[in-house]
Amino acid sequence: MLNPLMPMIRTELGLRYTEAGVVISAFAVTNGISQLPSGWLADRFGARLMVVISVSGVAVAGLLIGLSTSYLTLIVFLVLTAILGGGYHPASASAISTMVSPERRGRALGLHLIGGSSTFWVIPLVAAPIAATFGWRGPYVILTIPVIVLGIVLYYLIGRRQRIALSKPELFSQRIPPTPGRIQWRVLLPFLVLSVGTGMIIQSIGAYYSLFAVDQLKVPEATAAALMAITPAVGALAAPFGGYLSDRFGGVRVIIIASLLAAPLLYALSLVSNVTSFVALLLFIGGVTMTRMPTSEAFIVSNIPEKRRSTILGIYFFAGAEMAGLMTPLVGHLIDRLGFGTVFTVAAVSQAIVAAICSVFLWRTRTSVANSTSD
């Protein structure tokens, strides 16, 4: 909800691009850091507690954001939101992975992402008219209250499912997949670098889409907020399709193709001169982003022992959020000095370099490990 409402927040608080980037970064950096202890806590105390804390806790903190009255209090409550929400992704991805067979993990994680991605396109569409009527604080106050209730409901639903699993283990025993005995770091590390690097560049640039629409394309602020629903809306199709491709052709192939496609799409942003072409690019970028996410999660859990999944996933989500969060203010500073077009071009070149180097290294390492295993 933060990115779509940023033009309104920027106008009321009188922020420059750099200061707007700090607001976004405050959430992203803290959210990244919180993934580390949250992943370990999920392995230690179970997914139920972490999921509920994340859902209801984020809603309570979001309500406080809506009550904030200054730049400083806004940042403080965003940081609180990020801390409370840090446990959801490591816990939920790990829990899902234990309940499906290895050959269907990508699709299962992709289906899970439909819900997550849907919030990113539904919320802007709902928040835009509310913000147009009540100001940018209105969506935070109105939309977070039902989520608090949802967190409580989830707590009891997850507990009920756990009790069924304990009382009737035969229903679940055949669905629990085998886990690897050790981590294949030679393949996992370059995969993580490629996935995190691509996500970092796309997310740090994406933080300024709404401001680009308002300042360069002269789109009204409420309309710009609604446009931010486009990229995550693609996830309803791209996430399960990406998961299917991962199951069918392997995570390495899919992540290489997605990362290579990201470079020309980012460069095309520098050539945008109207809303129609901007919308088309958001659709394609959303497809690449949402294909990458289930592919990465499925590949990681398939190469991690079950007892360490949440911890390693926490490290993965930490790296992605942290790098993007640290890059966002820098991108804002460069936009202040160089303009959108130049920054989009630099991002495209950087993505092409990262994708080319990591893809070659990853493919060679993957082939080497496969050959040594067959021998």
Give an overview in words.
It is a single chain. With 375 residues, the protein is mostly helical. The protein is built from 17 helices and no strands. It has one domain (2-374): MFS general substrate transporter like domains (Growth Hormone, Chain: A), CATH 1.20.1250.20. Helix 10 runs antiparallel to helix 11 (221-227). The protein is globular and about 50 Å long. The N and C termini lie far apart (52 Å). Mean pLDDT is 79; it is low at 171-177 and 368-375.
Which characteristics define this entry?
375 residues, mainly alpha, Growth Hormone, Chain: A, 17 helices, globular, disordered C terminus
Write the layout of secondary structure elements.
Blueprint: H1 2-13, H2 17-45, H3 47-66, H4 71-85, H5 88-97, H6 105-134, H7 137-167, H8 170-173, H9 185-206, H10 209-215, H11 221-227, H12 230-233, H13 235-249, H14 251-269, H15 275-302, H16 309-338, H17 340-374
